[in-house]
Every structure is written in structure tokens, then in C-alpha cells.
What does this fold into?
Amino acid sequence: MDAAARRLNVLALFGVSVMLLFAFFWQFAFHELPCPLCFLQRAGFAACGIGLLLNVRFGIAPAHYGVAILGAAAGGFASVRQVFLHIVPGSGFYGSPFLGLHFYTWALIGFIAVILFCAAMLFLDGARDRDDGVPATGVGTLAMIVFVFMVAANIAVGFAECGVGPCPDNPTGYWLFGSGKMRD
It folds into this structure.
């Protein structure tokens, strides 16, 4: 199960990277700045990815799945909060939908998927404390590089939008470039 589990973790890490990449792409392609809850959701995906990255880099360990599950739970709370803010008819929404759902709803689905993936992997492969820690393959290394790049890019854009203080509830531009209001 070691090789299969490691491959599944590589695929899951690519999946988390795709979630971050798609949010990043949408932000620039459609000029939709992320709100503070959106940044918390991105941070949740980053935490999920760190747990998966640890499995890819150092070998499968239940504690690594625990990191991913905690990240998914934290990000899921931010997603649920945002869904609840916009679920009431007439309350409006934040951002444009993709395939009929807003990104906070897609994020919630993604966090649930991460929790289910980790639970299944713990059930199927959790009898061992840790595998032999064989270094990542070429594809695993690529998955780690893509993930680290996406997290770094999201941190940089978050700083450009918010600076060192709290982000505005309804961002209108980038703080770093003077194109939006500093604070609400």
C-alpha cells in the first residue's frame, strides 16, 4: 500500500494546488479580489497541502493526515461562515459563480473531500505508524514545488492586497500599489 498511498497523496497535493491555482487565476482574470474569509479558506488549503506534502516528502504518517484534517476543518469553518452569510435570500453574494456555485461553496466541498480522503487513507493504511520515508519521486517533487509556489504566490498577493494589517471586508484594490482603500 505504500506506493499506492504515496501516489494518492501526490494526486491529492496536486488537487489542493489546483484549487489554489484556480482561485488565483480567477482573481486576476476576472478582477475579483479575495475577501478576508477567502484568504482564510486559502490558508486552510495551504494547511491541507502541508499535511499532504509531509506525506509525500517524509513518508506516510497519521500525524501528517492530522495536519491536513485540521487545515480542512479550519478552512471549512471559514467556508461555512461565508455560506451562512450569503444563504439568506436577498443577502447578496460575494464574487461571481463558477458552474453555478460560488467559490466559498466550492471551497467547502473541497475541504469535505480532503477530510474524506484523509479518513479513507487512515482507515486503509493507518495501521502502521509510518512508512520507510523513501524520498519523493520526480512527480512527487513536482507536486511539492507547484504547491510551495502556489502558497508563496498567494501570500505575496495577500500582502499586496492587505499589507500588514487586516484586510478590508470589501476590497477595491491592492494596498501595495495604492489602488484600493486601506481599511474599511
In short: The chain has a mean pLDDT of 81. The CA atoms of residues 62 and 126 lie 6 Å apart.
